[in-house]
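Submission checklist for the structure archive. All mandatory fields must be present; incomplete records are returned to the submitter.

[x] Identifier: Hpt domain-containing protein
[x] Organism: Sphingomonas oligophenolica
[x] Residue count: 96
[x] Sequence attached
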Amino acid sequence: MAYDPGAIDATLAAAVGDEPGLIAELRMAFVESVERSLAALGTAEDAVAWRDAALRLKGLSASFGAIRLMALASDAETRPFDTDILSKLTRSIARL
C-alpha cells in the first residue's frame, strides 16, 4: 500500500491552521504513538492484546487521516499474530 504524505499534513492543517511548527510537533506525536502501537502488536501475548493494539492503531490513523494505515490496522484486528500484516504495518509506518 502506498503512503499518501499529504493526508496527515492536510488533516493537521485543517485542525490547527497555518502553524508549521505545531503541525510538525503533532506529526511527531502521531508517529511516536503509532510506533508504540506497532510495538504493542509485536509484543502481544494473546489475541485480545493484539486486537486492542490494532484498535489503538486504527483509531490513531483515523484521527490523523492516515486512511491506508487505518485499513491495514483494521485488517490486523481480525488477523492476530499474522506476520504478513505486521510486516505491512511496519513498512507503512516506516514511510511516515
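[x] Structure attached
Curator remark: Residues 5-94 form one domain. The radius of gyration is 13 Å.
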